[in-house]
Amino acid sequence: MQPSFDPSAAHFASRYVSAFAALPFAMQYGFAVVFGLVIGSFLTVVVHRLPVLLERAWRAEVEAAMPDAADLPKPAADPYPERFNLAVPRSACPHCKHVLRAWENIPVISYLALRGRCSTCGARVSPRYPLIELATGALAALSLYAFGPSWPAVAAFGLCATLLAAGLIDYDTRYLPDVLTLPLLWAGLIVNFGEGGFATLHDAVTGAIAGYLFLWCVYWLFKLVRGVEGMGYGDFKLLAAIGAWLGWASLAQVLLIAAVAGAAFGIVATWKKRMRFEEPLPFGPFLAAGGAITLFVGTPLYALFG
Ligand SMILES: [Zn+2]
């Protein structure tokens, strides 16, 4: 008699997928949304703390390389304790330093229960936190809807969550961290390495190269012709990562969506006097949006152009 046990990792992993797929639909979506909300809660921490950690690392590097770097301008806003990372210290109210209790960390629900205020001093809590959590929950449900109960759905959600965090950090700081864009690029190549990815490995590698080179060329053209820097290297790496996930054929649509959305945002922000006209716009959030939209809807825009 043949042994029924298959020790391969693929079989082991597929048992989880088939167990999940056997659940009723409502439970599948309920699980996805709760999972998304929890990851979203973590993303609010990443978006808030990662730039602080990176600035500290950068400063330590400069100080190590230049002994007289004590003259460096002090960081504009780093009121955080010595020991500070993505897990420590626990989240606290920036006004009264009240450390959030466990239930106050429950995504969205705690915000609603406290009516958007600190439980101790009553200071307003930014609606940004529950909005990021809700967006992440929605992206998890969307990934399940688009790809069914499968590993590609999990991978798609990982792509969306990273794009969301990277886009928000770029919006806040005008900086796209390598610690997000480079692993995202590798992950895209790995996801497409075997069968059942989002693109063939050939298209993924071509996409990574084309994504980087295209924006690199645009950057140098602008710099040579007009003497301005419209983008940063982070944008090249982000588009390379999107190309690695979705393949080179997706890039034209991703760029078109990003350019149109960026221009629309710039016009509205200038018109509402939120921005000055000359102010450079971070391109990362719009590339991220273009990547996420293309992940879910494919490339219908190409049909318009024949
Ligand atoms: Zn407070």
From TrEMBL:
<feature type="transmembrane region" description="Helical">
    <location>
        <begin position="26"/>
        <end position="47"/>
    </location>
</feature>
<feature type="transmembrane region" description="Helical">
    <location>
        <begin position="205"/>
        <end position="222"/>
    </location>
</feature>
<keyword id="KW-1003">Cell membrane</keyword>
<dbReference type="InterPro" id="IPR010627">
    <property type="entry name" value="Prepilin_pept_A24_N"/>
</dbReference>
<dbReference type="GO" id="GO:0008168">
    <property type="term" value="F:methyltransferase activity"/>
</dbReference>
<keyword id="KW-0812">Transmembrane</keyword>
<dbReference type="InterPro" id="IPR000045">
    <property type="entry name" value="Prepilin_IV_endopep_pep"/>
</dbReference>
<comment type="function">
    <text>Plays an essential role in type IV pili and type II pseudopili formation by proteolytically removing the leader sequence from substrate proteins and subsequently monomethylating the alpha-amino group of the newly exposed N-terminal phenylalanine.</text>
</comment>
<dbReference type="InterPro" id="IPR050882">
    <property type="entry name" value="Prepilin_peptidase/N-MTase"/>
</dbReference>
<dbReference type="GO" id="GO:0005886">
    <property type="term" value="C:plasma membrane"/>
</dbReference>
<dbReference type="GO" id="GO:0006465">
    <property type="term" value="P:signal peptide processing"/>
</dbReference>
<dbReference type="GO" id="GO:0032259">
    <property type="term" value="P:methylation"/>
</dbReference>
<feature type="domain" description="Prepilin type IV endopeptidase peptidase">
    <location>
        <begin position="159"/>
        <end position="267"/>
    </location>
</feature>
<dbReference type="InterPro" id="IPR014032">
    <property type="entry name" value="Peptidase_A24A_bac"/>
</dbReference>
<keyword id="KW-0378">Hydrolase</keyword>
<keyword id="KW-0489">Methyltransferase</keyword>
<protein>
    <recommendedName>
        <fullName>Prepilin leader peptidase/N-methyltransferase</fullName>
        <ecNumber>2.1.1.-</ecNumber>
        <ecNumber>3.4.23.43</ecNumber>
    </recommendedName>
</protein>
<feature type="transmembrane region" description="Helical">
    <location>
        <begin position="283"/>
        <end position="305"/>
    </location>
</feature>
<keyword id="KW-0511">Multifunctional enzyme</keyword>
<feature type="transmembrane region" description="Helical">
    <location>
        <begin position="175"/>
        <end position="193"/>
    </location>
</feature>
<comment type="similarity">
    <text>Belongs to the peptidase A24 family.</text>
</comment>
<keyword id="KW-0645">Protease</keyword>
<feature type="domain" description="Prepilin peptidase A24 N-terminal">
    <location>
        <begin position="34"/>
        <end position="146"/>
    </location>
</feature>
<feature type="transmembrane region" description="Helical">
    <location>
        <begin position="151"/>
        <end position="169"/>
    </location>
</feature>
<dbReference type="GO" id="GO:0004190">
    <property type="term" value="F:aspartic-type endopeptidase activity"/>
</dbReference>
<feature type="transmembrane region" description="Helical">
    <location>
        <begin position="242"/>
        <end position="271"/>
    </location>
</feature>
<keyword id="KW-0997">Cell inner membrane</keyword>
<keyword id="KW-0949">S-adenosyl-L-methionine</keyword>
<dbReference type="Pfam" id="PF06750">
    <property type="entry name" value="A24_N_bact"/>
</dbReference>
<keyword id="KW-0808">Transferase</keyword>
<dbReference type="Pfam" id="PF01478">
    <property type="entry name" value="Peptidase_A24"/>
</dbReference>
<keyword id="KW-0472">Membrane</keyword>
<keyword id="KW-1133">Transmembrane helix</keyword>
